[in-house]
Every structure is written in structure tokens, then in C-alpha cells.
Amino acid sequence: MTLILRTVVIGLAISFVLLQPATAIECQEDFVKEVTSDGEILVTLSGAVYRVSLADTIYSILWLPATSLLICEHVGNIQGRNGRYYEIINRDDGEKVLATRLR
Fold first, then answer.
1. Distance between terminal CA atoms of the chain?
2. What is the mean pLDDT of the chain?
């Protein structure tokens, strides 16, 4: 599967999660360390790395280092299977993105 197609599939899967009931497991505060790949990859000060949904990169591309974040882990149905995704909230301006955790 090509990188573009895989990215689109991941973005659609994350978007599909919004239609399904989900349970927040936990939320934690963190800060932006770096945003790369036109907003698709978000690295936090704690060292976590997230892949942002393509539909949400329009927001994350503008996030600057030291931006305050609230990261909430959710479990929900993703394409018929239970899976984890993250709602990442920019505490400075209230913007929200959906992402999967890479590490």
C-alpha cells in the first residue's frame, strides 16, 4: 500500500471513530516539541510521537514548540475492531486533532 493511500486509510479510520461510542481512558498534559511532515507528525516534550489525521493537519501544522496540550487516550470501534486513538487539544486556542500514537 502506498504511503499516501495508507495515510488516507488511517485518516478515514480515525474519522470513523467519531461515529462510534468511545471511552476516554486517561488524559495528560504535555507540550509540543516539534511538528513535522506538514502537520502530520507531532512530537511532544515527553517524547511521544503521534500521527495526526490528515483532516486535522490544517490545525496541527500551525502549532509551535511549547504549545500546551491536553492528550486524551480513547478506546473505540475502528473499522469493526476495538482500537486506541488520541484526541489532542491545543490548550492555548482550543483546537482539537485526532491522532494515532506511533511511539
1. 21
2. 83
